[in-house]
Amino acid sequence: MEEELIEVISIVQSSENIEKILNYLENRIKTPTKIAKALNLSQANVSRTLKKLMKYGLVEILNPSVKVGRLYTITDLGKKALYYAKK
């Protein structure tokens, strides 16, 4: 297994909120506000977590040019990491 994948699997398993957010985004495209409401998490927590997930390439913004209403989705790397984290 490649080193990058091992690192991101570890990141996914390091936090229940990370795993929740990735699970939620697995088949969805959502804003941080929608994610926070659906998962009963604070907006600040979701934003902080999304920023961390972006740093590791697990999620991406589909419309980065906008400030309000940014849409997030899980990346292929995020899907792989989530798959192995669930095993």
Automatic annotation (TrEMBL):
HTH arsR-type domain: residues covered: 20-60
InterPro entries, sorted: ArsR-like_HTH, HTH_ArsR_DNA-bd_dom, WH-like_DNA-bd_sf, WH_DNA-bd_sf
A Pfam family of this chain: HTH_5
CDD domains registered for this protein in UniProt: HTH_ARSR
GO molecular function per UniProt: DNA-binding transcription factor activity
Protein name from the UniProt record: HTH arsR-type domain-containing protein
Species of provenance: bioreactor metagenome
